[in-house]
Amino acid sequence: MSAEPLLKVQDLSVTFRTGDRATVAAQGVSYELAAGEVLAVVGESGSGKSVSALALTRLLPPEPSCTLSGSVRLGGVELLSLPEEKLAKIRGGSIAYIFQEPGTSLNPVYTIGFQIGEAVALHRPSIKDVKAEVIRSLAEVHIHDPKRVANQYPHELSGGMQQRAMIAMALACNPKILVADEPTTALDVTIQKEIMDLLARLRRERGMSIVLITHNFGIIANFADKVAVMWKGQIVEHGPVEQIMRTQSHPYTKALIACIPRLGQRRRRLTTLSDELKVSR
């Protein structure tokens, strides 16, 4: 008898409504995530990656503006029907998020230390010395001179430092799952590698599960265990990373992988025309 997965998503659908108009942003999304496992959700902008991730903890507009259906179970607990006061403890506590624009996620009028400390106080009330925990969290993500950074405001930090601070804030709450939504898109290439290496180290040391949302197949080969490819709000291919990288069954997956830059090859561009996918030079 197999163990219950840490996270089990079944037939998750997200529909936005404006007046009489309904837009289905995600439909029939299903996957499982084991403890310590990394799932990469890959697709271009507008494919439903971020919306389906936000739906895990209902971080979307309330009904009737947005309607959710299906099932999201964390450790066997159904989240889509969980009362708001209980779900608030799950957000950040059990499932934490980091986003691609840390500068807009951090509050500009509060110091980094205050914002991390607020999260610690909310989700880990047993911590007596919150300031010490803030310093420890910043040091864990390899921020030099964490005491100084704790007293700085977001605008005083570089993009890479802001993202490390966001990761420190997420980890300070000891989450079981970290949802990383395009965490390196706004960063320089060298900083991108540093952030991905940091996430890989933290995953090893903490045994933490990660849902990595990205449009870039090139960064997941040595990072993720499984990949789910999303197109037009649906998962069109799902399986172990090595298998998908080697053999693809859906033309959209083939097109995405063909767009990975390679030395000696001209860069390719993904185009969509009349619901048919092709790779053009």
Give the gist of this structure:
With 281 residues, this protein is an alpha/beta fold.
N- and C-termini, Cα separation? 50 Å
Oligomer: single chain
Output the structural class. Answer: alpha/beta
Taking Cα atoms only, what radius of gyration do you get, to the nearest Å? 19 Å
Instruction: Kindly state the percentage of residues in helix.
Output: 25-40%
Largest sheet: 6 strands, mixed
Shape descriptor reads globular
Beta fraction: 25-35%
Runs in which pLDDT lies below 50 for 5 or more consecutive residues are 272-276
Mean of all residue-level pLDDT scores: 89
Commentary on this structure:
By secondary structure, the chain is an alpha/beta fold. It is 32% helix and 28% strand. A 6-stranded mixed β-sheet has the order 6-7-8-3-9-10. Helix 4 packs parallel to helix 7. The longest helix is centred in the last third of the chain and has 18 residues. The protein is globular and about 50 Å long. The N and C termini lie far apart (50 Å).
